[in-house]
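Reopening: Fasciclin-like arabinogalactan protein 8 still failing for me.
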Amino acid sequence: MAASHTFSLLAFTFTLLAVASTVRGHNITQILADSPDYSSFNSYLSQTKLADEINSRTTITVLVLNNGAMSALAGKHPLSVIKSALSLLVLLDYYDPLKLHKISKGTTLSTTLYQTTGNAPGNLGFVNITDLKGGKVGFGSAASGSKLDSSYTKSVKQIPYNISILEIDAPIIAPGILTAAPSAGVSNITGLLEKAGCKTFANLLVSSGVLKTYESAVDKGLTVFAPSDEAFKAEGVPDLTKLTQAEVVSLLEYHALAEYKPKGSLKTNKNNISTLATNGAGKFDLTTSTSGDEVILHTGVAPSRLADTVLDATPVVIFTVDNVLLPAELFGKSASPAPAPAPVTAPTPSPAEAPSPTAASPPAPPTDESPDSAPSESPIDSANSKSANAAVSVSTPSLFTALVTIAAVVVSVSLRS
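Support: Ran it again with your exact input. Result attached.
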């Protein structure tokens, strides 16, 4: 009886350890780095930032192309077009070799990363997977009249129910995906902003001359966080007419990055992010957190949520945000006397985000959330939703350590019994 009890406890222990290893996540570029045959494919995943999007998701399948097959795309199309083509090879479901050959009714449609971009009308963001029997599986666009122009060749790697990597012999080409020209909107930033409901922000860029700074960064990479017109009317937004010209410039430059950082990259970001206004270490930077599939930007004064993607055309991405980004360097609260001693167990807020006593300073914009109260990253359990593939933040060494500790205690107790 004791032996049976001990065996059950050990089985439970190993299950915990297996779960811990599974949720630790994956890194697609590291996995493919071990296979030189995929060096071109891997390089483009990094250049287009698709690697970040893949790493931020779970229950996913990547259809990789070896260097020979990748030559059909590499160097022959703009980077934004190649990103679209490769997005069609990322399935938002888990397919290992066994599942490929057990498809219900022999054929199925799978949602791809391309479908989430909003640039895929109709069925263009779906892939047709068909079991052709005899060990063969065909892939093709789900668009009407499309052929199965690609075939499964071999399995590369699986982390069960997290990520599966399969090799196919040719790109999957959806109608028009390779002929789409880079968005003309890149050369008309203000036009895009006005159309997206950010006319106030667009006018400020023009009147301040900061638009030229944005345009000069386009070729090397530009990310814009554009507050909506409603955001400028929100309670707590300071009167911008009381700012100096230099402060207005800094505020507007704070709303952009001199790099291409799409949503997937922001979701996986763990570091402070420099903005166009950054003029020294830790000055005018941002941090990020996630809640499900949402990205929240933190300034040290007030948080702002990433609302919509106006444009994503490598190397430029423009987002709308629901609050004006208020840098602590311009809108941080005035100095105040040190607070009374707190209990030993109480955490001390950081200087940038700690609220000042009301009597010591006038009303200020809403205080940004502290690290302890920032939204936590948690996957949503829904197989058919976008948030089901949100970044998994529980993949931390502390989780693994905790589970190992629990396992050790369980084994120790069972042996004493």
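The first strand starts at residue 60 and ends at 64. If you still see a failure, please send the error message rather than a screenshot.
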